[in-house]
Write the structure tokens for this entry.
Amino acid sequence: MNIQRKYSLPNCTLLLEGLSDVTRAAQFQELRPELSILVNAECYLSGYNQPLTGGREFFESLVRAVSGYAQEFLSNVPNPQAHNHESELVEFQKIDSNRHRLIVHSEGAPEGFESQPSHAKRPPIEIDLSTVQLFDLVEAVDQFFADSQTLPELSLELQPVTRRYGGASQALIRQAVPAAVGVSSLAVAAIAFNLIPPPQIRPPQPQPDGQTSSTTKNLTPSASTDPTPTSAATPIAAATPTPTPATTTKPAVKDLEALLNTVSEITDPSQLRALNRQVYNQIHPAWTNRSGLQQDLIYRLGVAADGAIVGYKAVNQEANQGVEQTPLPNLLYNPANRAPISNEPIAQFRVVFTTNGVLQVSPWRGYARTPEVVGTRITDSNIVKDLNQKLYNTVRQAWSGTPTFTRDLKYRVAVNKDGVIADYEPLNQVAFDYFRETPLPQMFNAIYGSNVAPPNNKEPLAHFQVIFKPNGKLEISPWQGYQ
């Protein structure tokens, strides 16, 4: 029986195809069959039409190179496992702080690659990735290793980074400690952050009468009593209520990972999609100063079911040092204005403040399956057809000027029975980047007073995919679902 496994994230998808070992299948009757024989592996990256393909040798090399390079990137210590072009099909090269080159060698036509006569080597395939794409690729590898029913015998051989690769600098040798082993983004992050002694936390002190403070503004991602900045990564900052002698409710910094051990995690794709928008809509208008970033700042966020940001953690060192350049400390929920977080489920998101001023938000673990649009829909084909034409006329009339974008801008747009726009959502990164060149925010703002207002979902809506093309053409078709 042919079996497929798919590990999807916004910027990367791993697709594995293979077979189940009949001898094992006869002994273990699993509801989800085990993929134990890999036939084909495909790696799809956003911005590239053709996937990287190969067999088991290619996939194992990809896994080793991704893990080794992630280890190197987070620790800033060279890892030869990421650049071994002599024995590996896949290697990485760092271009700059936000660009990484993925190289796939033919190596004399190994398994999964087309053979060439006379043992001629094809030129290597080179793909440049952003840091966001790299982390999504690492996360896809994480999902694979977490799947016990896919190639269960395949494990990553952990290789410590020896001192000779760290150079003579004592600073680099110290950096090599958290980089001694690496397997995936979560493991590397744990090594990079959790081996550092935890900061000391002082219990809250009673405030004199009449003294007040803003809990959200005074929250920082570190509870260390040492005011001197350090290069160590901060723990997750999470606002949790703590009783005080006064009547003022003050939040205490608590490790969000510890909180996740006691509460369930939100994994429903449709709910994650809706929360993703809420997180973006909170951070986007609050990020007012978007200049001065030397590198992308990447964070992991914990979010409650109502969209409240309950914690965050720096993923890279730059994010740890530059948290005050983001609105995150001021966006942590205030227990004085909201019911305390107790046993509520938590969703996790990856948030990236990019050097070019673009905000990126995506689920931390990606989507387990394709999300669905929530809410009642207009399904009558005649009504949908009429609304399609009405929406086209409205947008076409409002869209003017010469486009500066070079790729299609894709949106989901919902209208009510009268053809009035009720919701819109970018579907690809360029749609986020160039949304101001479309009339959608102005149309939405004219009705609701803000282009980040909550969508109108109190009545049935008709959903459409709207595509603004670089040549000035407009395409609108009934919504078929997320791709």
About this structure: The first strand starts at residue 2 and ends at 9. The first helix runs from residue 22 to 27.
